[in-house]
Amino acid sequence: MAPPNLTLPLFLLSLLSLTSSSLASAAAGTTVGLTHIHLYVHEKYTGTNATATAVLQSPLGANSSFGSIGVVDDEIRLGADRSSQLIGRYQGVFFGTSVELGAGYLSAITLVFTAGEHAGSTLSVQGPILGFTGTIERAVVGGTGKFRFAQGYMLFKMISKPTPETDVNEIDIFVLMHHGKY
Length: 182
Hints:
- About 15% of the residues lie in helices and about 50% in strands.
- By secondary structure, the chain is mainly beta.
- The protein has one domain: AOC barrel-like (Beta Barrel).
- Strands 1-3-4-5-6-7-8-9 form an 8-stranded antiparallel β-barrel.
- InterPro entries: Allene_oxi_cyc_Dirigent, Dirigent.
């Protein structure tokens, strides 16, 4: 904690910096808005055209995920049906980070939009995966194109398993987007 005689000047300096950044945004014509994006990730994890695979198994054996590495290059589609429009790729890595039994991973994912209203843009998400049941939440940590300065969160949930080697995952992304001049 700062000495009592410095507390007020530090507070005023902090307030001034917040005010000036808000004024700069307003002067530049920049606005911030919350956008909800609802999509589906189609994954195939075995066979010749697998889109998800383990690259390195855990050195602690089959009952541990610690030290394992996996990669994904899944399809992003507008719908849960395999014939719905392909609009991008769900690409990333998973690192096994749990020394306890079961699954504990850290993921770093980039959603690469190749078609639709966000074509040419990307969103980057990262966060833990503590098991593969229920809804997994990850932080939106940035993006490119229409998603410059993006922040928010993504919810990821498996909704179906059309075949023994595939699954369909629903994603809901809530992202604060900055609109205006940069």
